[in-house]
Amino acid sequence: MNEQVPITPEVLVPRLGDQLVEMGLLTQEQLKQALKYQAGQGQLGKPCLIGQALMELGFLDRAVLDRAITEQIIRLRSALVKANHNLEERVQQRTADLQEALRQLSQLNQLKGNFIANISHELRTPLTHVRGYLELLHTEALGELNDDQKKSLEVSLRSTGRLQNLIDDLILFSLASRGELSLQLKPVDLNQLISPIMTRSNPKAVDRGIVLNLELESSLPPVQADDEKLGWVLSQLLDNAIKFTPTGGVVILRVLRNENMVMLNICDTGIGIAPEKIKEIFEPFHQLDGSATRRYGGAGLGLALVRQIVEAHGSLVSVVSTPDQGTTFSFPLLLAVPKTYQQE
Ligand SMILES: Nc1ncnc2c1ncn2[C@@H]1O[C@H](COP(=O)(O)OP(=O)(O)O)[C@@H](O)[C@H]1O
Ligand SMILES: [Mg+2]
After folding, report:
1. What is the pLDDT of residues 145-169, one digit of tens each?
2. Which uninterrupted H or E stretch holds 195?
3. Which band of pLDDT confidence, cut at 50, 70 and 90, is reported for residue 285?
4. If both were cysteines, with which of 179, 219, 270, 273 could 245 make a disulfide (CB 3.0 to 4.6 Å apart)?
5. Which protein residue has the closest C-alpha to ligand 1 atom 19?
6. How far apart are CA 57 and CA 263, in angstroms?
7. Does residue 9 have its Cβ closer than 6 Å to ligand 1?
8. Cβ distance 184 to 151 under 8 Å?
9. Residue with the nearest Cα to atom 13 of ligand 1?
10. CA of 238 to the centre of ligand 2 (A)
11. What are the structural domain ranges in the chain?
12. CB count, 10 Å around CB of 244?
């Protein structure tokens, strides 16, 4: 149990005896005697403070003691004021250091943004030339090709296609991170938009032995969206679903009408995502498993952009996933014309 010690000047000022010796008001010998007396009084059940002991032994009178204590308090107070001042100075210094670090960080971020924007534009131009000439060669416009030559060109074309996609993603990403992602919203017929996307994604699914299904109402009213960007989002989500689903699995693009909205769901029976990792997958350049990444490819940009584009539509992407069972990404879009104005 803590016994309450009364707050007296003697308690607040530590080592009063030493202070008195230092001030020449007491000899070392007298202090020793006083401490011994204090201890003795304590043993007799009459505890006393050192100042009291000094007075009772007649070494000091009350006035001298009070003066010494006052001086002690003044010293302590000025030490406190100084410490406070030092502390304030250090806080100010640290704050300035932090502000400088923040400034450098945002400068670096800006540089990174510029770097990505510049480098992707610089890469795009030569790549367009390479692709153009490869296509020219492939169509045999520059001379006949044997089968091996044709196959080599096809591999090269596929690789340039992948590079081009990556560069396009980087450009989109740098636009989005500079807040320059602009949408051209208009009524979009989902049947028309989705059909070529399914056609493009199907060979990838077939390649991996995955069934790709579309579940879409035929008389769906148009949604309010940027068709190009929405198409890109759906392709990315389907790409991921196919990429992260083992052979024998199923990927479904399900489009359901819900009041004055349309819900787009991309479901797979793939490897799934641990609940604590779901936040991470939307970070740019982030992939959950480095080894899987090497196996599956990709730059970890897709979902970061998917989220930005969907959010630019005023919507939100949600993810439901169970490891080893599958994942569903979904987001709603508003109908172009509210339900109440439509002829049912
Ligand atoms: N359908 C999915 N199933 C399991 N994991 C997924 C799925 N979609 C995305 N992920 C995880 O999220 C990460 C980020 O995805 P994304 O941004 O599209 O990058 P990338 O496709 O280039 O790897 C992926 O590397 C993967 O770990
Ligand atoms: Mg991806």
Report:
1. 999 999 999 999 999 988 888 888 8
2. helix 190-207
3. confident
4. 270
5. 300
6. 92
7. no
8. no
9. 287
10. 9
11. 113-177, 186-341
12. 21
